[in-house]
Amino acid sequence: MPLLPVHTSGLAYTVPKEAARSMRHQLTDAAHLVILKRVEKCNYMTVNPVDWNIFSVKLKGNQWTVNLHLKTCTCNKFQMDHFPCSHALAAARERNLDFTSLCADYYKRETLIDAYSVPIMPVGHPSSWVVPSDIASRVVLNPKSKRQSGRPMEGRHASSSERTTTQSCRRCGQSGHNSRRCSNPPMVNEGPSISVPDEYRRKCSICHSIGHNKQRCPEKDSTVE
């Protein structure tokens, strides 16, 4: 259930129960805001009804199947969160269906009010707690865990709404890895070579010729003599 934050400003204090009663929508303010953001995406979707409850929703070459009766979608967000995804909202708008009926009860304002119907008493400072001796003497250790075999996964599986990008190595130019883990030979620049004018090239300080320096100058020995 989504919890309502308690706002404090100086001596002002907002009781969560009173704040929940002041909400103007059937859903909580946080859930209503998510609905508004997802409804904006529906304007770019194409909805094709299969029957009264099943719809085919398309967007930029992708396709999802929504079942409003079972409250499911092939993106799996609808059935996992018990909260309509943007595809389900597009299908519900096609049937002029109230969005609130697609949300679970724990996203609704009345459920939030019932959650704070019983007063929550303060626990006080830990120094005033009365802890039985048999509880205080217990030592709670971390649970035993065993590392799974195999190499751990370095990345994560992207969701259906995320855009996948292809990574390319700047060393060899191939995709699928970066320059830190590249084992391929570096790519060779096959573009046209840039010719540098002679006046900008380095010259020998002894004979002032181009193509060598003073260490390899043929006139070095004659100059020393």
In short:
The protein has helices at 16-21, 29-42, 77-81, 86-94, 109-115, 133-136, 220-224; strands at residues 8-9, 12-13, 46-49, 54-59, 62-67, 72-73. It is of the alpha+beta class and 225 residues long.
Structural class: alpha+beta
Number of helices: 7
Distance between the termini: 96 Å
Biggest beta sheet summary: 4 strands, antiparallel
Oligomeric category: single chain
Q: Helical percent range?
A: 10-25%
Order of helices and strands: EEHHEEEEHHHHH
Low-pLDDT residue spans: 1-13
Q: What percent strand?
A: 5-15%
- Number of beta strands: 6
Order of strands, main sheet, comes to 3-4-5-6
Net shape: extended
What would you report as the Rg, rounded to the nearest angstrom? Answer: 35 Å
Whole-number mean pLDDT: 80
Domain SWIM-type: 64-96
Region (Disordered): 141-196
InterPro entries: Znf_CCHC, Znf_CCHC_sf, Znf_PMZ, Znf_SWIM
GO molecular function: nucleic acid binding; zinc ion binding
